[in-house]
Design brief:
- By secondary structure, the chain is an alpha+beta fold.
- It has one domain.
- It is built from 2 helices and 11 strands; from the N terminus they run ββββαββββββαβ.
- A hairpin with a 5-residue loop joins strand 6 and strand 7.
- It is globular, with a radius of gyration of 14 Å.
- The two termini are 22 Å apart.
Amino acid sequence: MRIKEVSYDYWIRGKDNGEMIENPTWEDVEKMILSLDGWNRTLVSFGNYDEGCYMAIGGGKNGKYIAYASYDDEEKIYNLINQTGSEKELVELVVGGQRGNFPERNCVSHDMVLSAAKKFFQTQEVDQNMEWEE
């Protein structure tokens, strides 16, 4: 199995003008993740949708992101966890063009999200050296 596509959103005046790239390289995916700003660009997803396997990364405001991996057409979803984050403290992020409050525990750093994304891109598996919550 390999990554077949990556897509991103790009909001201008309430309309999503994002695009999709087929057969992306890691550099394509990384560039899209690095462009997340939590305002106009708020979501990147990549995977092999024919196989029901993908990762989504959202946010970007102040270097905070949420990330999850999905398998079996969303029968299994794994959220990347910030082990030092609080379950009670909330962080406001815009993901997929929608503003929401997320537990600090679900908000991860720039370095952490890039590392998790690269591992998933290479193997289509979550990085077992990180904490994931089903």
